[in-house]
Please model this.
Amino acid sequence: MRWWSVANFVSNAGTWMQLTVQNLLVLQITGSAAATGLSMSVQAAPALLISVFGGAAVDRWPRKATAAVSQALLGTVAFVTALMVALDRLDVTSLMVLAAVTGVVATVDGPACSLLGNDLVPREDVPSAIGVGALVHQAGRLAGAALAGVTVGFLGTAAAYAANGLSFLFVASVIPFLRPARGAVRPTGAAQDRGTKDTSGTQGTMSVREGLVFFARRPRLLALAGVTGVSAVFGRNYQLTLAVLVTGPLAGGAGSFGTVSTVLAVGGIVGAVLGARLRRPSVRVVGALAAAGGLLQVVAGLSPSLAVLLVMVLPMAVVESVSDTAGTAVLQTDPPAHLRGRVLGVWGSIGTVWGLGGPPALGLLMELAGARGALIAGGLIIAGTIGAGHLLRERRAAVPRVSPVANLETAA
Model:
């Protein structure tokens, strides 16, 4: 697990280094902000369309081999991009194609690597392992953003892509030496295929359908999707809402927003540490934390000064990070072991909808109500929706259910 955490830190740092310079590269090539947004959408689109198939592949193929091959493929794409940038051969079409290939491979790589990390610890330590993964992700994000400026400044844009390629190869080289915890690995490949074989002969389709049906019939997962969805659309996008708030009503500059971003990152790390200590994460915990985050967002929207905003931003980031860690733990431990890849695939498609639809919806809300209004209204919507859902659930649970046998006895 230590080796896996180190490898993930290196990989996350490389990925965030590349993401930091990629938008600048698109702007440099096209001079268009719209093209920059399009490149991000092209990379995200495969997750919307084929994540369910990627999750099914993870359930059917040997996990370590799947993760190693997908990491090697992502590294190859990064090296190809670096070579084309170095030779000045990268145009918009090539960049979009490479972004689409990255998105396709990521539909398999994401669930494979997530579940592989869970295999390295005893079952009761999986929530803690997920918290460690969140901590590594946040630390890698900070390191990658910081290294991007240094790398591009001294070595150029191609070096950032090459460094990301090396980070993927480092992960791929570590995976064969990982030793899963005893009892944590479930059967894969042919043994599992026999257990989920479709009598109609359409085994691959049945495999995908099983994940969709399980998700649709699991109230806990549907509730988790609802909580996460409303939080993603009306909150969470703090890089957008807080940027407008700081540079607008609070009359700050880029340096002030940089300070806010740093506090957000620190809060994310603190939240990941706290999330790693959760032993029994649940949808109720996720909902309570998300509602608390919405109320903190309301207070942040009312902040009269930058100093007050900074005081509110830290707990907002902590609550968000703990909520995300708890939700991920529920998502990865609630389904049966042989369906977890497919459930993660379904979740990938749902999360992509939120990721693509959230910022435009929030932008429209800011156009109508301003940055303060968007934060306040969004926070109230989050807390109100989650509160209403909880009351509805409690009311349904309180209604006594009379069995058919009891009805017959009453009639007699």
